[in-house]
Specification:
Layout lengths: L10 E4 L9 H5 L4 E3 L5 E3 L8 H10 L5 E4 L4
Antiparallel strand pairs: 1-4, 2-3
The chain binds iron/sulfur cluster (SF4).
């Protein structure tokens, strides 16, 4: 699957106002999310094709609906 025709490619962000740092996203997609010992959630913003499934799964499982995916195939 190619994402080249999406302007800027698929992107992911986390709404810090909603995120409660439960870490479920990291458990589901450890290659995309890293909840550090300092209490900060780091994550991959520019996504590749292989990131599609784990990113969607993490977004679905986030209890706060804090993960936002953009530039995604419909
Ligand atoms: S699962 Fe959602 S609320 Fe929990 S750390 Fe990840 S983005 Fe934040």
């Amino acid at each position: 699957m190619s994402f080249g025709w999406f302007r800027g490619g698929p992107r992911m962000s986390v709404d810090n106002d909603r995120c409660e740092l439960y870490g479920i996203c990291q458990a589901e997609a450890p290659t995309l999310f890293d909840l550090g010992a300092d209490g900060r959630l780091r994550y991959t913003r520019q996504l590749e094709a292989d990131d599609l499934e784990p990113a969607i799964a993490a977004a679905r499982l986030c209890p706060m609906r804090a993960i936002v995916l953009q530039g995604w195939p419909k």
